[in-house]
Amino acid sequence: MRYLVFTAICALTFTLGAAGGLLHDDARIAEGVWIERVYVGGLTQEAALQKVRSELAPRCPERVELTVDIRRWSIANTKFARVYHFDQAVQAAYQATRQGGPLARARARLRSAEKGLAVAVPSSADQARLEGLIGELAQAVDRPPRDARVTDVIGTQLYFEPEADGLTVNVVQTAAKVTATGVFPPPASVPLVVQTAAPKVRMAQLQESLNAVLASFTTSMSDGYYGVMRANRAHNVGLLVERFNGRLLLPGEEWSFNNDLGERRAEDGFKESVIFLRQPDGTIEERWSTAGGICQLATTVFNAALKANLQITQRGNHSKTVHYVQPARDATVYYGVQDLKFRNSLTHPVLLWGELRDNLDLVISIIGDRSDDYEVDLDSDFWYGRAGKGGSLWRTVKTLDGQVLKEREHICDSFYPYEKEKTSTTPD
Q1: Which residues lie closer than 8 Å to 348 by C-beta, 6 or more apart?
Q2: Cα 118 to Cα 134: distance, rounded to the nearest angstrom
Q3: pLDDT over 70 for what percent of the chain?
Q4: What residues does each domain of the chain span?
């Protein structure tokens, strides 16, 4: 009995002593505590901070390298205010076993001593500034997707340029990878997060859909024009044909002469030729003006679109009739004032293509899928009145086997006032 009492007293004394040791706060970090694999157990905060700085600071890169393919960009930490808070890590290590009541603190110190306790080094950065820096260099990487396109048409043979995916740097995700927490040491090199953007049109689609000439229309650039006037008109039309060629119009998409071909300016190489302007008093003034003659391109495109069974959504006539098409079949354009528009109302894409043959004949072709090929007849009338002359235009559309789809669809009316003497605001 005396032996049992003695043993119990010894055990109680040991337990109380151990508990007292665990509860005693000696102002040191508990045993078993590590900061990013640097052991700081039993150290004061000051000693722990000195040790952590000396061992961890050299492992922290002073800059981050951003990469994509073989390209590299380097950004210093100071550029986006990245700081590693070793003092906060030491404070967290010190406080890790000092939370709660006496028993909770004792259990925490015992658990730390037995199993160990890991503390991370927090860091901070100016995320907005970092995203701005990444956004600047992303300009050298980003590229829009490139649709496949037709580069040339020779007879019925089409030549293609294949599509290419677009690239976009995800700035937010890249910045998050640079400043990712829980990783030490932080990566010295981070690949840009690059996302691809698919093109709308692929070469295989074009090769499948563009297999027939749906319509073609020709006007003469030579009749009624001579010398410099003829040469400059052909030159101007040739410049716009280069902009025009290869435009692909998807089903439901609207085409605008002015929006698609842009302004016609002297600094872009356009020359002067004769246009005519109706004045408020009813007279028509003929004058030399930059890009004269491009209305003939608009007229030729208008007629090709009609014959391809496309939907005309905007068209205006000249202030007087022109010699290269019948009345009511002309179309005038003037940048910012008058436009020509039509919509692809077919079931497949169509390709717009033009050719100026020997500076004499302007040929506009519309190429598409043979399932959209129709027989189109255009019918116009012409009349004279007291104030001027005019005409109307209708279109009849049939399938190739003769089934009528549109019976005399009304396209437009045109009125050409008589001129009083010589020289509107509607150019040729």
Answers
A1: 209, 251, 368, 369, 371, 372
A2: 33
A3: 90
A4: 2-61+82-124, 127-205, 210-417
- Whose tokens are 């024009």? That residue is 225
| Angstrom distance (rounded) from CA 220 to CA 218 | 7
Distances 421 to 17, 72, 74, 332, 416 between C-alpha atoms, Å: 122, 71, 73, 22, 14
Structure-token pair, residue 207: 């090769």
Task: Give 68-71's long-range contacts (Cβ < 8 A, gap of 24+).
Answer: 68/141, 68/169, 68/191, 68/192, 68/194, 71/140, 71/141
Distance of alpha carbon 198 from alpha carbon 335, whole angstroms: 33
> In sequence order, what DSSP letters do the residues of 246-313 get, joined into one string?
TEEE-TT-EEEHHHHH----GGGT--EEEEEEE-TTS-EEEEEEETTTHHHHHHHHHHHHHHTTPEEE
Q: Tell me if the pTM is above 0.90.
A: no
Tokens for 257, please give them: 């002469």
pLDDT tens digits for 358-400?
878 999 999 999 999 999 999 999 999 988 899 999 999 999 9
| 385 alpha carbon, distance to own chain's centre | 53
Q: Give per-residue pLDDT as tens, 117-146.
A: 999 999 999 999 999 999 999 999 999 999
Rounded-to-integer distance, Cα 139 and Cα 194, Å:
12
Taking CA 55 as the corner, what is the angle to CA 51 and CA 60, rounded to the nearest 5 degrees? 130
